[in-house]
Amino acid sequence: MVDILIIGSGPAGCTAAIYAARAGRSVKIIVGDQPGGQLTTTSLIENYPGFPEPISGQELMDRMRLQAENMGVNMESDVIKSVDFSSRPFVCLGESSIFYESKAVIVATGAGAKWLGIPSETQYRGAGVSSCATCDGFFFKNKDVAVIGGGNTAVEDAIYLAKFARSVTLIHRRDSLRAEKIMQKRLLEHPKINIIWNSQVEDIIGDGTRVTGLQLRNVLDNGESSKAIDGVFIAIGHKPATEIFRSKLDLSDEGYVITKACSTQTSVTGVFAAGDVCDPIYRQAITSAGHGCMAALDANQFLE
Length: 304
What we know:
Shape: elongated
Order of helices and strands: EHEHEEEEEHEHEHEHEEEEEEEH
Number of helices: 7
Distance between the termini: 17 Å
Helix content: 10-25%
Structural class: alpha/beta
Largest sheet: 7 strands, mixed
Number of strands: 17
């Protein structure tokens, strides 16, 4: 039994643990299947306050974990496979077959980008392949980049990247975009952005170190072509890690945990959510950390 059980070890989970421990609560973090969360896959971070020099995502999360442990937070290397929020104390079952009981729970399981699913995408992730234009766009100043997708995120990413890149090519497998009309208008009128319609990425080409191009296939006639680029941004959506919370918490149509306005409180009193698991918009390390702080304060107030 602990006061607060935190599911997830990314920026939201670690920050929540630090604040909760400082409030005098007993805290346990269930690390999950990706210790440190998806931030650990980011090669360099230049926009996290307090770090004037670039820092890797792995190092940043190592520091957060160490800070939490120094506060007395217990890190449990386990993955939660089911939860019972029907009564208190709450009970969470790990893949280790261990039952974890707590007076309050903070859900910080995050969300992951949807990927194309081709081997070269994994090979060059962090070396020219990214899912976050806001995080990595600056590294492609005066370079040629491509954005994969046709929704609001893809269009917004393309427009954002055009601030830095020499050219931006949007690649979409259909002949029309799903993005809002006003966003489409801005995209189509932008002098640095081109669109390749009815095409999908068959392979990401590289020199073994960095991305150098794309192999494309036209979905109408199966014609193949190549495109020389320095970086590719995958913008086909995100999927929150909320499968175990279905029927346990109120979720949005996209699967994100729904929280009350100006709060981290979920549909179950005593269960809180923080970070990308409840944020389909910002998806930044700093906003996740802020959410974690809020969740810890909300959970502490609830226990008081």
